[in-house]
Amino acid sequence: AVGAPPGLIAEADGGVAASLSEWASLKPLPDVPVVVITSSPPKADAADLDIERYESLSAYHQGLVDMVSDGVHLTAAKAGHYIQLDEPGLVIDAIRQVFDKVSSESE
Fold first, then answer.
1. Comparing C-alpha atoms, which of 77, 64, 71 is closest to residue 34?
2. Residues 58, 38 contacting (CB under 8 angstroms)
3. pLDDT on residue 2
4. Which residues, 6 or more positions from 10, have their beta carbon under 8 angstroms from its beta carbon?
5. Between 20 and 30 A from 43 (CA), which of 28, 49, 50, 72?
6. Sign of CA dihedral 47, 50, 54, 60
């Protein structure tokens, strides 16, 4: 968040932390295929805090995948927060994966 006021960054971090802590209390998820896409890792010269945030988010994403029997965790090669804009093909492929699995199971 280059140029963002420190208060805004702290508020966003607090909201993310609260959301992530709620994952631990989720009821069992339905037995459906799930694809979770994580943005690209920060650049090697990124601030330590950015790297730490990314690693935490990626771990939570993997945790979500681990909560289902048919989950896949993908990492975007060159996408930031808006993966659907940066790598639309990856998102389309993920949707197709889920659709294909659901379609084949219903036959």
1. 71
2. yes
3. 46
4. none
5. 72
6. positive
Q: Which amino acid is at 57?
A: L
- Token representation of residue 53: 């945030």
**Burial annotation 62-93 (CB, 10 A radius, 16+ → b, else e):** eebbeebeebebbebeebeeebeebbeebbee
pTM, two decimal places = 0.73
Measure the CA dihedral 52/53/54/60, to 10°.
110
Span 48-95, pLDDT tens digits: 767 888 888 888 889 889 888 999 999 999 988 899 999 999 999 999
Q: What count of other Cβ atoms lies within 10 Å of the Cβ of residue 34?
A: 20
